[in-house]
Write a structure and sequence with these properties.
about 100 residues; 3-stranded antiparallel sheet; about 25% strand
Length: about 100
């Protein structure tokens, strides 16, 4: 299950002949091109309240996990593969893969 980000990244780079040519791209383009599945993008800001926005994002990630959909997340040109989400009591956890290793 956690190998899919590596395979998706390699397949996308092969389409463009190198990893360098796909650097700083939009991961949604890669998901859609490789899988043929539709991609939904969600962006939020905390102007209307971070708790409400965070709750919406959590619900979407959890629903995607239940449906076994691929999920990515990112900020400032850096993308992560979301490998899973879980909740223990009131604590929420996101397990992610950082392809850059930092």
């Amino acid at each position: 299950n956690s190998i899919w980000p590596l395979l998706a990244e390699k397949a996308w780079a092969k389409l463009f002949e190198s990893y360098g040519s796909v650097e700083n791209g939009y991961d949604g383009d890669a998901f859609e091109a490789i899988s043929g599945a539709p991609v939904k993008t969600y962006q939020w800001d905390c102007a209307s309240g971070c708790d409400e926005a965070t709750g919406e994002v959590w619900q979407m990630m959890h629903a995607a996990q239940v449906k076994n959909w691929a999920v990515g997340a990112g900020e400032s040109g850096h993308s992560y593969a979301v490998l899973g989400v879980e909740q223990e009591n009131s604590n929420r956890y996101v397990k992610y893969y950082n392809p850059h290793g930092t």
